[in-house]
Design goal:
Elements lengths: L17 H20 L5 H8 L3 H22 L3 H4 L1 H21 L3 H33 L6 H28 L6 H17 L27 H33 L4 H21 L5 H25 L2 H29 L5 H26 L5 H29 L1
Helix pairs in contact: 1-6, 1-7, 1-8, 3-6, 3-9, 3-13, 5-6, 5-8, 6-7, 7-10, 9-10, 9-12, 9-13, 9-14, 10-12, 11-12, 11-14, 12-13, 12-14
Length: about 400
Amino acid sequence: MTDTTPVRRWSALPPVRHGAGFWIVTAVFLTVMAYSTVPTPLYPLYEERDGFPVSTITVIFAAYAVGVVISLYFLGHVSDWLGRRRMLVVAVLVSALSAVLFLLWPEVPGLIVARLVNGASIGILTATATAHLGELRSVAKPDENRIIAASVAGAANLGGLALGPLIGGLFAEFLPAPLVLPNVVFLVLLLAAAIILMCVPETVDAPTAPVTYRPQRLSAPRGSRSAFVAAGFAAFAGFAVFGLFTSLAPTFLSLSFHENDHLLAGATAFVVFAAAAVGQVVFGPLRVRTQLAIAAAACAVGLAAVAAGAVAAELVIFIAGGAIAGLGVGVLFKGAIATAARVAEPERKGETLALIFLIAYAGLAIPVLVVGVSLLFAPPIAVLLPFIALAVIATVSAAIVMRRQERSL
C-alpha cells in the first residue's frame, strides 16, 4: 500500500494524504479527550448552583466511566469492519451530542446522562483512533518504527486529558457563563472535527462478506495469571488515582486547603495528567523492568507527598506529590499494557488488552464513588489517607510482581 492508495469515500470533500490524515486524527483525538475532562473544575459551580452533596459529583463522574466501559465492550472493536474513519466520525458526533445535553439539560439527571454519553464517545474513540493512527503512519512512513505512532497516540490521549481541566479552569476563572460557554465552544469544534475527518483516508477494507456483530470478547491468559492479575491491579489502582484528581480535586482543594480558585483546580488535574504523559515519553526508551522500578518509586513517593501535603495543609507539597504520582501512574499503566500484551495468548491478544482497559476504567469509577460516599460521613483527610494507603499498596506491589515476571519472559 502507498500513500496514493485509493480510499473508500462517503464524503464530497477532497481527500488528504495519509501523512496529513495522521495529524488530523491526532488533533481530533486530542480535542475529544480534552472535552471529556473540561468539567473537572466546573463541578463545584454545579454543586454551588444546585446545592447537591459531594457524593452527587462522584455519581456524575462515574457515569462517564460507565459510558466508557459500555461502549468499549459493545463498540470499541467495530471499526475493524465498519471502518476507522466512519467510527471516528461517530465518536466525535456522540461527544457533540453530550455537549448539546449539557446545554439543554443542565440539571443533575441531565448531567449524569451527558457524562454517560460523553464516556460512550471516548470508548469508541480510543481504540479506533489508536488503530487508525498506526495504520495511517505505516502508509505515510512505512520504514519508521511503529513506536512513533503509538507514542503520538498516547500523547494525544493523556495530553487531551491533561488540557481539559486547564481549559475548563480558564473558562471558569476568566470568561462569562462558565457552565455554558465551554460547551458551546467545544460543540463547534467537534462539529468542525467531524467534517474535517471526512477528508482522512480510510485504512480498513470493506469486508467481502457480511459480518455478524458480536460484543468485544474479553480474555485473561491461561498461563501467567499472577502477572496478568498484577497488571490488572496496576491499571485499576492507577486509574483510581487519575479519577481522584479528575473528579474530586476541586472538592479537596476547597475543603482541605480553602482554595476556591477554579483555574487552580484545573491546573492541579492538568499537572497530574501532564506528568503521566511526560513520564511515558521520557522513560519509554528504557527497559520495561527499569520503567516498572521507576513507576513503583514514583507512585510511593508521590502518593506519600499527597498525603503529607493534605495533613500539613501545604498546597505545594500536595500538587507536587500529584505530579510525581501522575508520572508514576503513567509509566505504570504503560507497563501494565506491556505486561498484558506479553503474557496474552497470541490469538487472543486483543481480547486480553480489552479486558485490561475495562479493568482500568472500572478503577476510574468504583473507588471515586466510594470516596464520594465516604465524604458524607467523614472529613476529607480521614477519607483521603486510607485511599492513598491502598493505592500505594496496589501500585507498588503490582509493579514489583510485573517486574519479576518480566525477568522470566
